[in-house]
């Protein structure tokens, strides 16, 4: 582990200790048919406090990964019964569910092209057995760190920092395909939200936006929900017709009857829904926005389809 600080400085030791503590929550699956080799890798991982799960063939590894979404990393041998290492990697990478899984291939086989095969099929890294303990630890840590950084960058690009809903950029980038599959676009806007800020201050306004977003997320699972602007939200959903109407009216009831943090004013929202199929998401959103405007003019706390 490269560090500018002395290995024995208090700061450095504390950093290592903290990292090890953090590792206790990281589940690593070791897929390896040789029980000696498996035990050896398990011991190495446990030195760094990882939570180790074992599989003795490729099929068992696949089953365990499918059953436990918390597994962050797979360390897999190549020659194993039932499903070999890189077939396992190929199968996993075809599934979007496993795109963030960190995979390190492992083999003692003489075939020098094996590392390339592993990487090409989607592994993050490869180690040839036998390896130095320190190299093993370095690769495990650096691959996990890279994955963590990537996830952070992706969140920064796609999510709204206040509400953690998708942002406008993500909505138009990923929402188009969803819309083309037969989605319906709706825009929801909080009523007289400026009054909340003016009466209770921006902090309370922010908290209210967060709570509203939570409620929206819980009410429309499976749809794409984005923060479209300040107190405006966009929903793309597969629901339509009466089912969508019912869901939206239920949501508005929930908003109205909920007491939001610190704000003692009643909270309501208005909604514009574009039910007619449009050629692009942009057009659907424009139309939904026009209906939203009509809903505001109709006295707010209402939906216009
Ligand atoms: P209407 O019913 O017509 O929608 O009235 P409104 O007051 O909700 O709408 P208006 O567009 O007049 O004001 C929106 C307000 O939302 C103004 C702005 O300060 C506030 N706002 C926008 N983004 C944020 C935010 O991130 N945090 C807070 N606290 N307020 C925000
Ligand atoms: Mg083997
Ligand atoms: Mg508003
Ligand atoms: Mg406005
Ligand atoms: Mg607005």
Automatic annotation (TrEMBL):
Presence of the UniProt keyword Phosphoprotein in the record: yes
Response regulatory domain sequence ranges: 27-144
One GO cellular component term: plasma membrane
Keywords: Phosphoprotein
Enzyme class per UniProt: transferase
Sequence positions bearing 4-aspartylphosphate: 77
Known EC number: 2.7.7.65
Residue ranges annotated for the GGDEF domain, each copy included: 181-305
Protein name: diguanylate cyclase
Protein species of origin: Marinomonas balearica
Coverage span on the entire protein: 100 to 404 of 406
């Amino acid at each position: 582990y490269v560090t500018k600080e002395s290995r024995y400085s208090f700061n450095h030791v504390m950093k290592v200790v903290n990292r090890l503590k953090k590792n206790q929550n990281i589940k690593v699956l070791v897929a390896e048919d040789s029980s000696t080799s498996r035990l050896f890798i398990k011991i190495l991982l446990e030195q760094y406090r990882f939570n180790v799960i074992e599989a003795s063939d490729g099929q068992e590894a696949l089953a365990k990964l499918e059953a436990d979404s918390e597994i962050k990393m797979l360390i897999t041998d190549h020659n194993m019964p039932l499903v070999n290492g890189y077939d396992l990697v190929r199968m996993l990478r075809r599934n979007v569910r496993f795109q963030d899984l960190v995979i390190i291939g492992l083999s003692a086989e003489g075939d020098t092209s094996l590392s390339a095969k592993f990487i090409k099929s989607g592994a993050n890294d490869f180690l040839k057995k036998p390896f130095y303990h320190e190299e093993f630890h370095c690769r495990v840590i650096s691959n996990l760190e890279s994955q963590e950084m990537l996830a952070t960058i992706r969140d920064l690009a796609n999510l709204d920092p206040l509400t953690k809903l998708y942002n406008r950029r993500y909505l138009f980038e990923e929402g188009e395909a969803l819309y083309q599959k037969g989605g319906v676009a709706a825009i929801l806007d909080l009523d007289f939200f400026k009054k909340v800020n003016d009466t209770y201050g921006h902090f309370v306004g922010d908290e209210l936006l967060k709570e509203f977003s939570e409620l929206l997320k819980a009410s429309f699972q499976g749809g794409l929900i984005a923060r479209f602007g300040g107190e405006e939200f966009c929903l793309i959903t597969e629901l339509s017709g009466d089912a969508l109407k019912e869901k939206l009216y239920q949501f508005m009831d929930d908003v109205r009857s909920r007491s939001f943090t610190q704000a003692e004013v009643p909270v309501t929202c208005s909604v514009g829904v574009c039910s007619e199929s449009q050629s692009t998401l942009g057009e659907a959103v424009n139309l939904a926005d026009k209906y939203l405007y009509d809903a505001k003019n109709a006295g707010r706390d209402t939906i216009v389809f």
